[in-house]
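Hi all, posting the design record for the shared folder.

TITLE: backbone redesign
STEP: 1 of 1
STRUCTURE INPUT:
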């Protein structure tokens, strides 16, 4: 069946010829039985005789005395063939060449020989003398031998043999067979089942972020890639799948990478339709845009966009895609953002805000991306990602002084030292020896752009401090000079009271900041939750600063315990020499200098520049509330002291064009308070919305939905890029952006991907003409 179906592509332009007899090997009854089996549906093409199924290409000047497709080659045996004089010598064709080259047929009209197979099944990419007619009788033997082994002739011969096999099968022409099979429900169903297996494998690999294709996919390859290997694995337990694949045409198995790309595109298209349907499920669904930039493994700049909205009482942040760009100006980025969201056909008046990072190209007040986008979305408010803000606050604290910067540099040096293969193996052995009941841990590298890495770096060194000392002590006596020098230098740095004091201090501070950092990365975070997290962090730092006597003593006590446990005596790194006072300052009294301040006693540790810098940065970066949205959010929370303060609601109401009447606000206030007195708790604004139906309180409901929809972070776009990084690795750096986008969206939005209907995906895939019939 596979060979019969595969021939249909060669029979695009049939030649109508009178009905003729078949070869001696053919059965005359074939045509009659074929006519009886033809479908009667008018939409299907009909063929009255088998000879209607003609070649791909017919020369308009072909002689009429050659054989038709179903006739034996025209090989007339004349008593005397016409003679041709060339270069003074007379030659003619001889019938002996029929025996030696059976594919030849002779045209009496043109006095030339033709190849029967190439005459009927010639490909447009080939041009040859045996298609036009050959008359060089002197070199005919050499020419026929060359032609017989040519690629042109072999392809034509395969097509001709395939045609004869189809014709003799008793099922009629290939077109009739395809039409008959297409009308067979089980045939179509088997095609769909085969495609669903392939779709299952494709989506499985997409959701698991694993590659589909292998480095080599040839039959003799040991590892053909996840897609082909998974299909073999399934076929092992379901032989029918393999049998179905083997009987399909070789160019219609749906196993190619092109089919994978089209299925991924169809699935991603259906996923975006689902998101669009959620946005349009209820009228006036407000939304916000979240965007970020990322450079992938192939150094290509990508602009990703996510959309935030409320659906069925839940906040959703959905990834809608990304696009490659070389124009990283504000105008170029704005254009790409609009290009990504264009398929969703969003109403610009319902956009309430943007969330980007604080880069000048995004946040610039004159020509930034948010300014350009406001021309399309006039009511949108720009929000600098609060997670980025907090990261900038904490990163600034790590550079407040030279000794703090040196502290974090030392942590990174420890991490680098432990990554050596021999040293790392020994590090693991020491952990197993000193802490046999504890899982082995790894040191983390401190990175400025990711504050959680600094927290992890400090906590791991604090936990593994005894193991680190043990390994460094061993390496300091090593015969390898470089290892010995590095180990001794690190020991000198970490065996000091200053280092341990900073280690304990940052460990305490990170306990508070980690909670706020993780909270600010939540996709369900709203304005009020964000403010509460930041205010809580401010209060924690303020208490630590104001209650310095108590907290300082606690930190100092923990530091002394560590020093006693590990027998550390030094307060600071040994002072190599006393710096000379410059001659110009000899007559002056020097109170302090800008050089490093060494620790000589506990009072030298009592400096609060770290806390002071963090508090200053927190107050400066989290103070702006241009549209009064933060105050309005507090005024909508029943536990707030400003609950139902209409003055606080006016600014955002005017900005978004919402008019809240006194009567509506009064009734809403009494209803919420009555429910609160009855024991109902309102932990979030989402619970307040549930008690504020739009048919009763239309304007308050709108304002609450706007406040909740306003994004606080751009972490969802960063999560999409994290998914992209797992997919496009250094081994897959040549992956096209379109394929990468479809894989990343399907993986990132796994909740929707799991609910996709395969029949709908196949309907989208089948919108283009397909080799296999997938629908009746």
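Okay, here is what came back for every position:
SEQUENCE:
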């Amino acid at each position: 069946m596979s060979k019969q179906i595969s021939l249909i592509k060669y029979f695009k332009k049939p030649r109508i010829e009178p009905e003729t007899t078949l070869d001696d090997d053919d059965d005359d009854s074939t045509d009659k039985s074929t006519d009886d089996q033809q479908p009667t549906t008018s939409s299907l093409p009909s063929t009255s005789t088998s000879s209607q199924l003609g070649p791909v290409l017919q020369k308009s000047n072909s002689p009429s005395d050659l054989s038709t497709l179903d006739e034996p080659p025209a090989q007339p045996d004349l008593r005397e063939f016409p003679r041709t004089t060339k270069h003074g010598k007379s030659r003619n064709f001889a019938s002996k060449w029929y025996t030696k080259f059976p594919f030849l047929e002779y045209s009496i009209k043109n006095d030339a020989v033709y190849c029967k197979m190439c005459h009927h099944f010639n490909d447009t990419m080939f041009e040859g003398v045996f298609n036009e007619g050959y008359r060089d009788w002197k070199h005919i033997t050499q020419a026929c031998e060359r032609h017989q082994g040519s690629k042109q002739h072999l392809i034509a011969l395969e097509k001709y043999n395939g045609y004869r096999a189809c014709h003799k099968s008793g099922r009629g022409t290939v077109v009739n067979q395809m039409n008959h099979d297409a009308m067979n429900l089980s045939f179509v169903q088997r095609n769909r089942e085969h495609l669903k297996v392939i779709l299952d494998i494709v989506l499985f690999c997409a959701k698991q972020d694993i590659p589909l294709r292998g480095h080599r996919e040839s039959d003799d390859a040991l590892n053909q890639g996840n897609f082909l290997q998974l299909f073999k694995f399934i076929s092992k337990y379901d032989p029918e799948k393999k049998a179905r694949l083997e009987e399909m045409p070789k160019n219609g198995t749906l196993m190619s990478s092109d089919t994978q790309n089209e299925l991924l595109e169809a699935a991603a298209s259906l996923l975006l339709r689902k998101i669009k349907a959620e946005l349009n499920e209820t009228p006036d669904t407000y939304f916000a845009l979240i965007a970020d930039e990322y450079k992938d493994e192939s150094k290509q700049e990508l602009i990703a966009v996510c959309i935030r909205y409320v659906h069925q009482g839940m906040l959703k942040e959905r990834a809608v895609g990304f696009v490659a760009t070389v124009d990283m100006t504000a105008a170029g980025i704005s254009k790409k953002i609009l290009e990504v969201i264009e398929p969703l056909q969003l109403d610009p008046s319902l956009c309430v805000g943007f969330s980007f990072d604080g880069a000048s190209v995004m946040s610039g007040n004159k020509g930034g991306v948010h300014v350009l986008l406001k021309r399309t979305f006039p009511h949108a408010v720009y929000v600098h990602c609060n997670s980025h803000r907090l990261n900038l606050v904490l990163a600034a604290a790590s550079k407040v002084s030279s000794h703090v910067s040196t502290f974090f540099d030392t942590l990174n040096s420890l991490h680098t030292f432990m990554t050596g293969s021999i040293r790392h193996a020994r590090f693991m052995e020491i952990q197993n020896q000193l802490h046999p009941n504890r899982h082995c841990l790894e040191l983390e590298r401190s990175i400025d752009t990711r504050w959680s890495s600094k927290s992890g770096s400090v906590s791991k060194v604090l936990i593994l401090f005894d193991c680190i000392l043990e390994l460094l002590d061993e390496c300091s006596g090593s015969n390898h000079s470089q290892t010995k020098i590095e180990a001794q230098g690190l020991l000198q740095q970490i065996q000091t009271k200053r280092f341990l004091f900073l280690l304990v201090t940052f460990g305490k501070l990170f306990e508070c900041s980690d909670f706020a950092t993780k909270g600010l990365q939540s996709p369900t975070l709203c304005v009020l939750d964000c403010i509460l997290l930041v205010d809580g962090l401010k209060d924690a730092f303020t208490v630590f600063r104001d209650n310095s006597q108590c907290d300082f003593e606690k930190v100092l006590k923990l530091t002394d315990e560590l020093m006693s446990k590990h027998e550390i005596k030094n307060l600071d790194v040994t002072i190599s020499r006393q710096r000379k006072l410059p001659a110009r300052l000899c007559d002056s009294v020097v109170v302090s200098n800008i050089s490093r301040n060494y620790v000589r006693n506990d009072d030298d540790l009592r400096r609060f520049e770290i806390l002071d810098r963090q508090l200053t940065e927190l107050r400066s970066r989290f103070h702006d509330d241009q549209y009064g949205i933060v105050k309005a959010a507090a005024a909508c929370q029943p536990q707030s002291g400003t609950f139902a303060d209409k003055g606080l609601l006016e600014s955002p109401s005017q900005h978004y064009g919402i008019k809240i009447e006194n009567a509506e606000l009064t009734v809403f206030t009494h209803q919420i308070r009555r429910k609160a007195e009855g024991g109902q708790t309102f932990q979030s604004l989402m619970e307040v919305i549930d008690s504020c139906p739009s048919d009763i309180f239309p304007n308050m409901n709108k304002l609450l939905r706007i406040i909740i929809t306003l994004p606080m972070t751009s972490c969802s776009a960063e999560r999409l890029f994290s998914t992209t990084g797992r997919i496009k690795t250094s081994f897959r750096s040549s992956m096209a952006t379109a394929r990468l986008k479809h894989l990343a969206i399907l993986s990132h939005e796994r909740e929707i991907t799991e609910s996709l209907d395969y029949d709908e995906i196949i309907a989208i895939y089948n919108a283009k003409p397909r080799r296999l019939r997938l629908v009746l």
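COMMENT: The two ends are 19 Å apart (CA to CA).
Let me know if anyone wants the other runs.
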